[in-house]
Specification:
Elements lengths: L6 E4 L5 H12 L3 E6 L2 H13 L4 E5 L5 H7 L9 E4 L12 H29 L2 E6 L12 H21 L4 E6 L7 H8 L3 H12 L6 H14 L3 E2 L4 H11 L1 H16 L3
Parallel strand pairs: 1-2, 1-4, 2-3, 4-5, 5-6, 6-7
Helix pairs in contact: 1-2, 1-8, 4-5, 6-7, 7-10, 9-10
Protein name: SDR family NAD(P)-dependent oxidoreductase
Family: Belongs to the short-chain dehydrogenases/reductases (SDR) family.
Organism: Mycolicibacterium nivoides
Amino acid sequence: MNIEQTVAVITGAGSGIGRALAESFAAEGARVVAADLDAESAEQTAAQIRSGGGQALGIRADAGVTADIEALTATEFGPVDIYVANAGIIGAPGLGTEEDWNSILDINLRSHVRAAQVLVPHWLSRGGGYFVSVASAAGLLSQIGAAGYAVTKHAAVGFAEWLAITYGDDGVGVSCVCPLGVNTPLLDAVRASADPDSAAGAASIVQSGEVISAQDVAAATVAAVRSGSFLVLPHPQVLDMYRHKGSDYDRWIAGMRRYQRSLRAGR
């Protein structure tokens, strides 16, 4: 896809991967709608893009609310060509409560579904569009310590697959981004937690591979959109891990249990 002169909406654009994505798409010539629950952070991202000569709007929006998604698609920039569903939360450790599940499902999964419900009909009538799902390697593998995160990221990957299969012949492109550890406020929050499940989860993230920058993830994502590639792996070793998991599921689960025991023992 030629990104120049497109309109790209980035959710969770106030910091971390979202801000890096907004800046990277703007550098490719897109007019960027930087959305975040924190209005000030969204505007800071947009202002930074404008200071570099790009075009950007900073808008406060809840990525899980349909009315807010509709507002993001009706700005002065015109129809949306690229929608990057990046907003996400780590959620509660362990099994969580009913309220915890509702919260993480709304942000990590239903926000993607609701955005597609708003955008896909327009893209079909226009002959094309592009949906980027920022999931996680946890969506291909799993996440020690946090059931909600592991489950919703698996679901986000599954929904992105379904979109690609269902609407690919109609001109709708889809990319699904699945990094391991990324140096963001989200990872910082997990590492700072005193909860033992969260501590084990944080250790598994930082030990699984190099903690890369948000800019690395953004560069890989932009390249995937340009080429129309579905699976985006900023950590290439995730593919080998995924293949290993699929080749012998029981062995993989046994290995993950051993690894979890070692993490809980502080090793």
